[in-house]
Amino acid sequence: MKARVKLLDGMTFVGESGSGHAVVMDASPDVGGRNLGPRPMEMLLIGTGGCSAIDVMLILRKSRQEVTDCICEVEAERAETDPKVFTRIHLHFVISGRKLSENHVKRAVSLSAEKYCSASIMLGRTADVTHTYAIVEV
């Protein structure tokens, strides 16, 4: 897996994935950024939420659950001093669907947290990573 990050202007960068996708990142205005994109640490949280949400959806679909929507809300806290690593990360899943089995949803979230989501498991080496879920019947 490869990635490339290139300076565009000022403190704005474009990150390119090995699969050919690009995203703009920027620093905050207080350090010279123009607020044109997410901060790199925000990208870590977005990636973690995406990694875990994909796991949860794959598991629920294999379980033949009729999921109509999946939202992963990610909230984190960082250390006060450098390096300002994440110290706490919480992923909350809101799973919508028809006749969803709570056991299947609970199992999918647990499997992602404990076995499949390499991003949250890796970040769990420095942060307390927790997971919760809610089920919405549609």
UniProtKB/TrEMBL annotation:
Q: Name one Pfam family in it.
A: OsmC
- What's the domain of life for this entry? Bacteria
Which species? Plasticicumulans lactativorans
Task: Spell out the protein name for this chain.
Answer: Putative redox protein
PANTHER family cross-referenced by the UniProt entry: PROTEIN YHFA
